[in-house]
Queue: 3 jobs
Job 1
Amino acid sequence: MSTTRRRPEDQGREDQRPAELDRGEARRGRARPPGARRQRRSGERRLYWMWHDTMVIAERGLRQTTRIPELLVFATVQSAMFVFLFRYVFGGAIHVGKGVSYVNYLMAGIFVQTVAFGAVAGTGVGLAEDLQQGLVDRFRTLPMSRMAVLLGRTLADLARNGISVIVMLLVGIAVGFRPQGGHLGWLAAIGLLLMLSFSFSWVGAAIGLAVRNPEAVQSAGLIWLFPFTFASSAFVPIATMPGWLQAFAENQPITKLVDAVRAWALGQSAGSAGWVALAWCLGVLAVSMLLAVRFYRRAATLK
């Protein structure tokens, strides 16, 4: 009987073959390329560590809230002052239609204003302070995902804004707010508010990384929000505004957000306002995320 002797180079090639074949490929008689499994595992590791780094940064942001509770307290007090101001000072002079109390009309605007202001100012000022203190430079020297710094910060601010909304809901109930929406309506309203918070946090991140000074960031982040918030259906019906202002008020994102949240909270039909508001949030998120990542890449190199 004759035997075939394997050459040394053939022995080396056999040793380099993958030890385990993919089941589907094995049934077809083909082996997976040696680098495919390594690439997949490498991609999975990158995603895992990006998520891990994101959670670390988010936990750091939430710990700042517990160590400096004034940040959350003052933001909540400001929104509560708007509730009392409009409810008891201007409420008697503002008529929103028969069968609807002004406090029920008002609270949707308060929810949207609280989330928008808190998201833009909180994220922008926080990132500007991290830049001034050199924390961003330290993060960039660590073997961590760059996206995790921004994503972790926005997720922490998302949690803070969720707490603010709960507090505002309790304040509203204390002054006479009586929502009539069902569970699905409230879930839709809360989901839209959280989407607003997340998208506007990225707007604040882009402003904070571009302006870099905490005091200037607070002014730059809020000054453009005032006309959008007050020239909307948040506090007064659009029909009471001048004709030239009604066209702007009816077609801007804050109005769509307020109309959708108000309708769902009061058990009414939101019509197309909910989808239009969601589309606005997604568009703002896409643009602001690209800008924030671009500004972050160059922020630590600027002195």
Note: The chain has one domain: 35-299.
Job 2
Amino acid sequence: MAVIDTFRAVVPYYAAVVDGTVNTLLASSSLRLATSGWGNVYEEALSYLTAHRMYLMGYRSDGDVSLAQIDAKANAAGPAVSKSAGDVSEGYTAAPRMTKIGKSDGWLMLTVFGQEFIQLRDSRVMSHVGLVDINAG
């Protein structure tokens, strides 16, 4: 199975993004993720990391790129928790249960794709693996 096929299977959210763009972004993400230690889940991890980066770059589910109109369908920070009383409402997001958050994992927690990456990484006993946030400052 080609990496693009794995991406399409685990990240149907980006079905509208053309293969050429996805392949370019997969190649870019592969430079940030060592192949060792992942075993047979490397392509899945690479797919989640790529989808996470795509979301942070402004890619939307319809294939357009716009930081001004981020598509809320990606549930950017996990499940929403909210309560309201009359005209006052309070809402926040919570990290999924069973997700270990390390010092450098904050940027991965911004999307469900990054959270899936962390869970997959932790399932491989690879919590020591760090990534560089090339999108930061």
Note: The mean pLDDT is 79.
Job 3
Amino acid sequence: MERIRPLLDYTIKYLKRLDVLLLLMCMTASAFSVYLLYSMNVNGINPSYISRRTWILQLATAGTGTVAALVIAGINYKTLSKFWFLYTPVALLLSLMLFIPGMGMRTENSEEINWLNLGAFQIQPSEFLTIAFIMTFATHLYRLGGRMNEIKHLALLCIHAMVPVGIMVLQKNTGSPILLLFIFVTMLFAAGLAWRYILAGLVAIPGIVWLFWNVYAKEYHKFRILVVLDKAIQEQEIQRYFNQQYLGLMALDSGGLNGQGLFGGDYITMFAIHNDFVFAYVGMTLGFIGCILTLLLILTICIKILTNGGLAKDNLGRLICIGAFSTMFYHTIINVGMVLALTPVVGVPLPLISAGGSSTLAIYIAVGLVMSVRAHREKKYHMFYEDDD
């Protein structure tokens, strides 16, 4: 008993410094996700894509993510920021491997090369590249401090963001570079970007939109946007570009207030109902109430992340939390917007709810970083050892 007591005391001390509630909320969201996927499997929805392996893999990924978050929380985030040269090249290498013939896998019905084929399983490198970007960009901003508004430093910050964005664009990826740009702008703003640059950016938006539409956008990009803006095109493309969102809206409508239940209902099915359009399944089975509760859970997680940012001892910790918050928040806004036909379909999952090992694991890594900020908010505290003084 005497040997166990020090370990027990240390464990209690360790847990007290962690935001256990944040982790428990994430685990609750994952448990809900697994149950939804189990329901789909039992109901025989899209059996070509959804099987017993789908929900078991989601469960295993959530468990792995929880362990990863606890480990990361035990390492000082400042130490993690110093070792960017270890994990960033790995994230970049995984992304660049998508260009190797036979390793990069295209998303169905598009030119996007999102998935890396590693034989027994596939991963989406953009999810991990986004987390690496949050860490390196927070470090870059922290080291610059007030000098970030100097032209040369702001140019370097833009180049910093354009490297991962450029890689994703070359892979014909649509959702990930949009998300990364939102994270980039949010972190810049939180770090104290001068208003003159914000106004200049707003002025440049029309030119950027013109370049996107006339230079980069393919037919499917344009139609995905047009079906959101034009009711006539929605009717015209109801069997093609608007079909998925049309079915998603029908599924939400069929759920009513309380939903049809998770088992034995008269379900509407669609492509990607287990990942990008899982919110439609929530509405169909659990109704409007289920949708609101799901969004409240995600919103509470976002608020907890921001709260931890407010407790950070320095700007580095605050910016890491802002980056993690941006990841959760923008994923949710875009995903729900897709299902409600308010935003184009760009292949963005609902965080912790959609099926997807890469997305789930990346979110847990981000949560681990936030927990590290919370745990190491005292200047002289170290998770794994005590200062002599």
Note: The chain has a mean pLDDT of 89.
